[in-house]
Structures are given as C-alpha cells and as structure tokens.
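pls design
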C-alpha cells in the first residue's frame, strides 16, 4: 500500500469509528418496562448510550479530531496523534465492556428514577459502538506504526522562516525602536 493510501485509510478508520460510536451512544440501548400499581399501566423507559457508557462520546470526539490532525502533523507529532487516537479507542472499549458485561449494574448506575426491573438486555447499539471503538484503536495503531513516513501538508502552510539577524539595520528598524533617523546621533554615522 502506498503512503497516501495508508494515510487515507487511517483517516477513514478514524472517521468511521468515531461516527459509529457517536451514532451508537445517541440511540436507546435499553428499553424496560416497570410495573405500576393496579389501576395504572406499566411504565416504559429507555436509556441511551450516553447515560450507560459515560465518557464514550467525549473519547469519540477525540478520535474525530484525529481526522483533522493526521494530515496536519508529521513526524513525532503524528505519532502522538496516533497514540491519542489509539488511547481513545481503548478507552471506549473499556467503558463499553463494563456496560456490556453487567447491563443490570450499568442500568442501576444510570439516572433512572425509582425503577424496579427484572432481567435487562442490551440492544445492538453497544456492539456497534464497540465496533467503532475497535476501528479507532486500529487507526491509532496504524498511525503509530506507519505514520512517520506518510506525506504531510506542504511547507507553504508553515510559519515564515526567521530572517537573518546579521543584516545592517535600516531606517525602518530605527523607527521601530522609537528613534528619529533624521537627527544626528551616535549611531547614525553622519
């Protein structure tokens, strides 16, 4: 694979992984019914992924920022960006594994008011988020391993180089210092 394709693959993985996580955490993961008193109907409530997996959205936004940071950095800076992307993917996986491993405990930590429920099952969205997190981690690992050799933005976007300081001072320089170049002084030579 060429360097350009590897860079585009890493950017695509970051974009796709972040989009999957952001989509998944905004959807309902749990729909439960609670029993009510005899004349009242049972109450249904839903919990979205942001309530059950706190922090996943913020980490997905870190991965999304990597989409812009990858082409803008080079060398060690790109490697640091890759580490951050990989760490955000691993962090999302850790949050999701905790939620998937024990959905009842996860639901009890969520902001649910006085809900008594039996068995709780998670829908497909936590697994979609898990797939996105794995894509983010893969993108970060790809950047760390191969990113130093990839192309970067051209140098025309860099700050202009410092001009040489050993040149002869001009009249403008003396004006900048607050001196009057028309008066004869010790440094004018005239």
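designed seq:
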């Amino acid at each position: 694979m060429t360097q350009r394709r590897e860079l585009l693959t890493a950017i695509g993985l970051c974009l796709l992984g972040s989009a999957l996580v952001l989509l998944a955490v905004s959807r309902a993961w749990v729909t439960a019914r609670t029993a009510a008193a005899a004349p009242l109907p049972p109450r249904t409530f839903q919990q979205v992924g942001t309530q059950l997996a706190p922090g996943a959205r913020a980490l997905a936004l870190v991965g999304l920022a990597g989409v812009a940071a990858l082409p803008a950095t080079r060398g060690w800076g790109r490697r640091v960006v890759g580490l951050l992307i990989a760490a955000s993917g691993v962090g999302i996986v850790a949050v999701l594994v905790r939620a998937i491993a024990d959905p009842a405990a996860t639901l009890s930590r969520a902001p649910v008011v006085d809900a008594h429920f039996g068995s709780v099952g998670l829908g497909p969205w936590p697994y979609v988020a898990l797939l996105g997190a794995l894509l983010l981690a893969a993108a970060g690992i790809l950047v760390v391993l191969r990113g130093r050799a990839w192309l970067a933005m051209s140098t025309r976007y860099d700050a202009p180089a410092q001009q040489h300081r050993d040149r002869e001072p001009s009249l403008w320089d003396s004006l900048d210092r607050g001196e009057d170049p028309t008066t004869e002084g010790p440094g004018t030579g005239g």
